[in-house]
């Protein structure tokens, strides 16, 4: 009689034996699309929003996994991937631009993130920073340059709520401070990685070049991330992200 596989409790991924490098995305369909770029790709698991593949990119074994929308659920995936052997993460996602000169389809490489994610505040004091690993930032920058892709670097705002509510938002202050973009999960990944001695980076494709679309209730009706310019940017960024993981794998430890 064959023993049941030893699976993690939330995401139902194997508890051990996963490759050391991972691309994490929000959408399960995006995970499948990235996995299609790999050699010998196979689906490892699919439970709730967590869809996980393994395969090879130019000789480097990688995981591609989806985490859904929002930092609390995403953090569960990041934690269980780390427990299963992942030591280097790059989040491939989308974001709304907040800084002038950033266009739809451009890539934003995150140096750090504002911790407005709704979950890490319950785990560690808010003064603790959410920062990318420098080597991940440089690998992403190098890969973007090699691809000839338009990219920008900067701090991003990770915000738990997508739609505005009744409370005033600090968007104007963040714009004046030069924050590049707004998204929903990255600061949780950075905090987890820093506290566990892991490597993490973020590559975000702009799907709305007007920041007011994401923080103004009357404007959200015009927000449309399902455009060719965004899809083309995501497809380009998928290869950039995989190349960055390959570059990280080649670095001496």
Give a short overview.
The protein is of the alpha/beta class. The protein has 7 helices and 9 strands; from the N terminus they run βαβββαββαβαβαβαα.
Key features of this structure:
single chain; 253 residues; alpha/beta; 7 helices; 31% helix; globular
Report on this structure.
The longest helix is centred in the last third of the chain and has 23 residues, at 228-250. This protein has seven helices and nine strands, in the order E-H-E-E-E-H-E-E-H-E-H-E-H-E-H-H. Helix content is 31%, strand content 28%. It has one domain: Rossmann fold. It is globular. The protein has a five-stranded mixed barrel with strand order 5-8-7-6-9. With 253 residues, the chain is an alpha/beta fold. Helix 3 (134-147) links the parallel strand 6 and strand 7 (151-159).
Fold blueprint:
Elements lengths: L20 E5 L2 H8 L3 E9 L2 E8 L2 E7 L4 H13 L4 E10 L9 E10 L17 H14 L3 E9 L11 H6 L4 E3 L2 H11 L2 E10 L3 H4 L12 H23 L3
Parallel strand pairs: 1-4, 1-5, 5-9, 6-7, 7-8
Antiparallel strand pairs: 2-3, 3-4, 5-8, 6-9
Helix pairs in contact: 2-5, 3-7
Q: Please tally the helical runs, counting DSSP H or I stretches of 4 or more residues.
A: 7
Largest beta sheet, briefly?
A: 5 strands, mixed, barrel
- Name the CATH superfamily classification: Nucleoside phosphorylase domain
Look up the CATH topology. Answer: Rossmann fold
Taking all Cα atoms into account, the compactness measure Rg is 17 Å
Shape: globular
Task: Work out the number of β strands.
Answer: 9
**How far is the first residue's CA from the last residue's CA?**
42 Å
Into which percent range does the helicity of residues fall?
25-40%
Oligomer: single chain
Strand content: 25-35%
Name the CATH class.
Answer: Alpha Beta
The figure for the number of domains is 1
The residue ranges in which pLDDT falls below 50 over 5 or more consecutive positions are none
CATH architecture: 3-Layer(aba) Sandwich
What's the mean pLDDT score? 93
Can you list the strand order of the major beta sheet? 5-8-7-6-9
Structural class: alpha/beta
Q: Give the topology string: H per helix, E per strand.
A: EHEEEHEEHEHEHEHH
């Amino acid at each position: 009689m064959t023993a049941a596989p030893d699976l993690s409790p939330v995401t139902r991924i194997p508890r051990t034996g996963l490759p050391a490098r991972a691309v994490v995305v929000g959408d399960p369909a995006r995970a499948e699309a990235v996995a299609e770029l790999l050699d010998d790709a196979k689906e490892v698991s699919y439970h709730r929003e967590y869809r996980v593949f393994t395969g090879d990119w130019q000789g480097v074994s990688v995981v591609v996994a989806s985490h859904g929308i929002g930092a609390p659920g995403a953090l569960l995936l990041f934690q269980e991937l780390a427990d299963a052997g992942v030591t280097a993460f790059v989040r491939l996602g989308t974001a709304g631009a907040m800084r002038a000169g950033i266009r739809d389809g451009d890539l934003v490489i995150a140096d750090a993130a504002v911790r407005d994610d709704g979950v890490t505040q319950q785990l560690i004091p808010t003064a603790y920073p959410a920062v990318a690993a420098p080597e991940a930032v440089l690998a992403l920058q190098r890969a973007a340059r090699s691809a000839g892709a338009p990219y920008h670097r900067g701090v991003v705002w990770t915000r738990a709520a997508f739609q505005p509510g009744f409370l005033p938002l600090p968007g104007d202050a963040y714009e004046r401070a030069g924050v590049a973009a707004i998204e929903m999960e990255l600061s949780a990944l950075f905090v987890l990685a820093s506290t566990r001695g892991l490597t993490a980076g973020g590559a975000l494709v702009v799907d709305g070049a007007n920041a007011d679309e994401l923080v103004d209730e009357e404007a959200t009706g015009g927000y449309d991330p399902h455009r060719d310019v965004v899809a083309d940017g995501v497809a380009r960024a998928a290869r950039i992200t995989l190349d960055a993981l390959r570059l990280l794998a080649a670095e001496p430890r």
